[in-house]
């Protein structure tokens, strides 16, 4: 039986669909790991197959023709459906949900809560990879990531979680021994868990206090959850995100030394490939996480009784 489908090369369709989304051959190349010239070549092949121009090429910009707009819409829908079907065939529509997360976020926020998601979605096995390593969602076997940054990454859908704000924290025993701490300057010279943490620079710069970690710049525990544990043990003052240690602050194991929170200019984001946004397992985790974040923000902003 003869295949009567008249289909263009998949590589050309991918290059065209990506360029159409970004209206940029350069950004399409960045997303696909191709050069701008390679993207342009694939699109030219497609235009020859179609028999019409798909883009209006200008000096510093491109725009879609009417033919290009229609083909872009259908191509995007088709690639989304193909991606979903392919993932399902590999057992990814159910099966395993793989999440790559900052170790501090994984240990202090996600770990105590992920069991509730697992119980609500018993058809999914959740695998959490707690790492600072940046993963490539187009190549690595990871469904979604929780990372820090601006929220603008080509090819990724990003959902804002909360800002990376910070404040110095210490145990009651440490405060009794080295305090009181009434001014930012009072922290200069006291033991610090991670004096080279960049958040200290943000914090002292905000208060216009000169700070130089000097030879201690390399000292640290490697991640926030370990630094929090060290601070709880009374080994020093640590700079942490209050949202990640909310329960520890509520229990009195740590005390926030100053009320003002300093913004680092970065935020936490949930990210996944735009092309996989309709996968049931990703939608389920996204909806659960966003609901948990919204509920927590409501509790934080609620007035105390």
From TrEMBL:
Alphabetic keyword roster = DNA-binding, Transcription, Transcription regulation
UniProt xrefs under InterPro entries: LysR-type_TF_proteobact-type, LysR_HTH_N, LysR_subst-bd, WH-like_DNA-bd_sf, WH_DNA-bd_sf
Where's the HTH lysR-type domain? 8-65
Q: Gene3D superfamilies under this entry?
A: Periplasmic binding protein-like II (3.40.190.10), Winged helix-like DNA-binding domain superfamily/Winged helix DNA-binding domain (1.10.10.10)
Keyword Transcription regulation set for record: yes
Question: GO terms for molecular function, please?
Answer: DNA-binding transcription factor activity; sequence-specific DNA binding
**Pfam families for this protein:** HTH_1, LysR_substrate
Highest taxon of the lineage: Bacteria
User: One of this protein's GO BP terms?
Assistant: DNA-templated transcription
Similarity comment text for this entry: Belongs to the LysR transcriptional regulatory family.
Q: What is this protein called?
A: Transcriptional regulator
Q: Which organism is it from?
A: Consotaella salsifontis
Q: Taxonomic lineage of this organism?
A: Bacteria, Pseudomonadati, Pseudomonadota, Alphaproteobacteria, Hyphomicrobiales
